[in-house]
Design a protein that fits this description.
Layout: E1 11-15, H1 22-30, E2 36-39, E3 51-54, H2 57-63, E4 70-74, H3 83-95, E5 99-102, H4 116-124, E6 132-136, H5 144-148, E7 152-155, H6 161-171, E8 185-188, E9 196-199
Parallel strand pairs: 1-6, 1-7, 2-4, 2-5, 3-4, 5-6
Antiparallel strand pairs: 7-8, 8-9
């Protein structure tokens, strides 16, 4: 199939159950961006030659973009107000020209509410050249903006019928069927002229990467 790239003016949504291959695909999609910020609430999204920041938004601000333009930001797992994540996304939008990848998008975009900066990234980030890649386990549990703004849809195994129905509402019945082949996925988007195609299984995930350099010390 045609190589899939996410242009600065585009959004992508990757959906599928835990362990289906979402993170593996996301690493392939965003791994080559020179300017990249990943929101990693599960603390397991790693990329080679990418600094990991675990702490407050102030820690993130101290290191981006003055020191590096590739960061994985790991918010405090005990925090529930997401103020730091909102501040991080706002800083990305301030500088622009940076790919934004959000793992566990439903943490920041429930069906009834979406983090303000996340909404702005999805709806206004095109003008700032901020491509957005969102990952979620449950399409039904994520805000409609995450999916409706996405030109690229990647659908891994969805075991719940209502989740498959949600994707079929966006791209037609070809996305309704459950995908049985491990690490295979259905794709819908401009790379195939708007047609749904089945993609071969991804290569099995590589062994965990070594942790990035600690985000400590001054500039």
């Amino acid at each position: 199939m045609t190589r899939i790239t996410i242009a600065p003016s585009e959004r992508a949504a990757i959906v599928g159950r835990t362990g289906s291959g979402k993170t593996t695909l996301a690493r392939q999609l965003v791994g080559t961006y020179r300017n990249l910020v990943v929101i990693d609430p599960k603390w397991r999204f790693e990329l080679a030659r990418t600094m990991v920041v675990a702490g407050s938004a102030a820690d993130f601000a101290r290191l981006y973009p003055q020191r590096t333009t590739r960061l994985v930001y790991r918010p405090d797992p005990e925090s529930s107000d997401h103020a730091d994540v909102d501040a991080v996304i706002r800083r990305v939008l301030r500088y622009g020209r940076t790919c934004l990848c959000l793992d566990e998008a439903m943490d920041y975009a429930t069906p009834s509410a979406i983090l303000p900066a996340y909404r702005r990234a999805l709806t206004q980030g095109r003008e700032l050249l901020v491509p957005v890649v969102s990952l979620t386990q449950r399409p039904r549990a994520v805000h409609n903006t995450v999916l409706s703004e996405a030109e690229h849809l990647f659908v891994f195994d969805l075991q719940v019928a209502s989740d498959r129905d949600k994707m079929a509402d966006l791209a037609g019945d070809a996305l309704r069927e459950r995908i049985l082949t491990p690490y295979a996925f259905a794709y819908y988007g401009p790379a195939t002229g708007g047609h749904v195609v089945m993609c071969p299984p991804l290569r099995l995930p590589a062994p965990p990467l070594a942790p990035g350099p600690p985000a400590t010390g001054g500039d």
